[in-house]
Amino acid sequence: MNETDFRNALAAFATKSADELEMSDRLDEIGVDSISVFELMIQIEDTVGEHATKIDEDMTTVADLYDHVQKAAALDNA
């Protein structure tokens, strides 16, 4: 999943549009809570694999979440 696709998927749960999302945005500041993160991971699980649903509570920014998605995809393709 590339960054553009990720931003588009995340925007459905955020208070910002995909174009407005910055990688440095804090998830809590854009209206994304742990339930939203879990729902996002379920939504994109088919794209990035089942490892995406294993959520790390240390994820605080859009970049942290994107990195998690990338690592999950790599694990699934290993």
Automatic annotation (TrEMBL):
Pfam families: PP-binding. Residues 7-69 form the Carrier domain. Coiled coil: none annotated. It comes from the Bacteria. This is Carrier domain-containing protein. It comes from Myceligenerans crystallogenes. The lineage of its organism: Bacteria, Bacillati, Actinomycetota, Actinomycetes, Micrococcales.
